[in-house]
Amino acid sequence: MSLAMKRPLPEPNQTIQDPPAVVPLLGPSTTSARIYKRIRLTARKSTGAPPSILAYVNLLEDTAGNSNDALQVLIKISDAMLFDESEFPEAIRKLVEHFRREPESAVRVKTLSLFGDLAAETGIDCGALIDEVIGLLKGETSAKVVSQGLYALERIGRACVGPSVACTNKMVFFAKSKLFSPSHNVQRHAILLLGRFVLVSDAEKESLELIGKYTDSADARVRAQAIRSMLTLGERGVALPASMYARACGSLADDYECVRKEALQLVFQLGVRHPEQLVKVSKDSDQEVRLIDDAFGRICNAICDLSMHIRTLAAELLGGMTMVSDEFLHQTLDKKLMSNMRRKKSLHERNAEHFTSGEWSSGKKWADDAPKELVNAEAVSLMASGACGALVQGLEDEFLEVRTASVNSMCKLALKNPPFAVTSLDFLVDMFNDEIEEVRLRAIYSLTAISKHIILREDQLETMLSSLEDYSVEVREGLHLMLGACKVSTKACLSLVVQKVLDVLLKYPEDRLSTFGCMQRVGQKHPEICMSLTPQLLQDHPFFDSAERDVEDPSYICVLIMLFNAAQHLPPMLSLFPETIVRHYAYLRDTMPNLVPHLNLGGQPAKLALTTSTGSRQFLETLLNNIQSSYSAPQARQALLKAAQENLDRLAEIDPSFSGTANFTAVFFGTQLLMEQLQVATTGQPTKAPLKDCLAQLIRKCLKLQNLFSSLTLEDQLLVKQMCLRASALNLVLVVKDRSQSALAPCQLLLHIASDASNFLQENSALVADSFTSAILTKLAAVGDPRPGRVFREILPVVQAAAPVVIPKINTNIKMCKAHILEPSESSGSTDNVVKVTAGLIASVPFVAELENLQESQRQNLRLKIKYPDQNVHVIVPRRRDLKKIMTEQGESESHWRLRTTVLLSHGVWTEASPVDIGICLAVRPNTDLELCRPVKVQFAPKPVKRGI
């Protein structure tokens, strides 16, 4: 049985004292339902029992005739949802009785709303509650109450896990009986209930047509809900017939925005589901087009809607219609329509028709030679007029939401249609000059995505490169990414790119890493053109020796990175390099191995990059087998565990693809080694290291296993939870034995972790716990009064006789959260780079870091940690907007983020510059954090305040 997580509100005459907060050292993580329930109840006793819902409901009996007081009681119940669920049946019965005798409709509405809250936030019996609500509504006359009751039924049905067919049939039958109500709210909620719970087989036969009739309702809200329910049925698997298309198109001209919005989505769904279905262009025309083409034209027409929300939705939907014909697709970028909507013919065609008909112009009658086939604009033609220039109009819209959606849709369509990508290139380049940074970025990323279909011309490059001087660092980095992904057509184009990138680098030296990556990709994509530019870029004279350039010059490094990467794909380039380049290559190869490839320079053969994943797996398998074979020899086992940690740390550095698995196994072995050492201490034997230090290390390693690793299998998660359970049991035993501190918090922690472990085992019944976990859970379930002394006596024999932990299986998908600080760099910590500021004032230090494998659940725990020389530590929460996903040529990275912010330093007067450590960590509990990388040192010197002249 589960309890909701809301805090109860105290009654006016009741004082509730908050229980002492339990700080989970290791975080939440029986082999039977009985043991699980027993542990949950035991844990609840230690923190105080929840209030009784009957105590609140009984107050309703004292409010007879006073609806205001009854309403206040119901509000208290809805605000306090942490109740004992065993009292729910009796409480529901009393609420139903009060509902029947309550004269005020507002109180009855609140009661029905409370039923929906109870179903959504507790584990109440939804089937019985549905019967009660339907029984109450059958005799109800108030439209507000019936409307709220239908909505409550929808909430209860959604909260019910796998509602029975009988329950759904009852709700559907009741909803159909209320469709004929004169109240639009009742109709709307009845249609909502039908769309959510009608059986798929029944919907295809009659319910879909029944709901469709209400698209002609007099009330706009009912019309919108009818279309929304049809879309809901489609999401549930009902086949939406193409015959609904005419009705959906008619709703596109509705006066109300809510109806047009739903109709747009229905037109989109029908076009995607029936792309090859032929429909007539108009009622009076015999011309037929594919349904996807006609739907595309109608959605394009919505780009001209008066509502910004409709225009945005239309622009978004266009990107999903990739099966549209090429002529319709290309027409979205051309505003020129057929002349005055008239089907004109050439002079030769008109003369030929006159000749065959025998009719010639006499000249006596005005305009007797004018085209006879004047047609109505609405009855025109082969394509809807809305498709003409629709995307262009979206790009020129006054609202950034419409422009952004248009750019996204253009990118999606261009990825599926290379000719369209070439046509749309100029329009995307024009968006580089948009006034909104977000739109510019979206255009840059879109152009990067379609780069494989296009080749840039010189006139296009001029517009792009002019944006390189943008004040926004994200725009500049996006352009670096785009230039590295695109190909240029001529030697002059590449020369223009290189010159502009180097000029901007002088203006923004902080962009050097992004520029290096750009030049690396440019060299890889243009080896032939780079070869023709080599003498010019290196300033190498054919007859005279040139002066040796500074290898620390960022502009020179950019040129070398580009040429070295081009030479990797075109080895004849190596003969064009002078002797000084060979020495510079050796230096850059050692300092920038990720940017400079292996080359056959200076007589050294090119080294081949070996794939080490297979060897890494074999090494790890051998290591695990050796440890497993020493299961019965504690001394040999501990020696192997110590050596394994060092080997696995080295393996993580050598093979990045295997680093997550190696780090996880190393931390696991370290935790296991500490446990075996502390297990000896429980018997009274002395330990080599201080007991408190060993416990602190054990807790930190368990926190790492829980918070730093992702993509764990269920078996891995069970091992981590069992490891945390062992650590918490050891912690309680050693604290009780030490007698120098209170054992209440360790005892509550053990109960908390045991409850989480038993919950996990109950949810995953296929998993089997080890002997230690089963024994601990059984002992805790048998404890009636969970006091530390009682729990200690029960678990002490189990802890002392515990067998070694099971060795984890190899899981190559494990990822570890890491960080790399790019700015300030290592050179910032030298004595030459000192941050000086008047004491008491603030100095800002730019901070840039990249985070690997950072999950969404970890973002809120990300912190910046500043440690001053006097051991003062400041922990800063970075702003959410400062953390963004890293863009690649394939799009946004799923788990790689870039943190770009400013760190503020301030302190009292120091005698000389001293280092300040700045690092990144995860705050996993109060006053406990896990570092994600080694902190960088910044020399900081607060100067004394000058007084007087």
From TrEMBL:
Subcellular location: Nucleus
A Pfam short name: INTS4_8HBD
Region (Disordered): 1-21
Domain INTS4 8 helical bundle residue range list: 617-811
Matches recorded under InterPro entries: ARM-like, ARM-type_fold, INTS4_8HBD, INTS4_C
Domain Integrator complex subunit 4/Protein SIEL C-terminal Ig-like: 821-945
Any GO CC annotation of this UniProt entry: nucleus
Alphabetized UniProt keyword annotations: Nucleus
PANTHER family named among the record's database cross-references: INTEGRATOR COMPLEX SUBUNIT 4
Name of the protein described by the UniProt record: Integrator complex subunit 4
Organism (species): Culex pipiens pipiens
Lineage: Eukaryota, Metazoa, Ecdysozoa, Arthropoda, Hexapoda
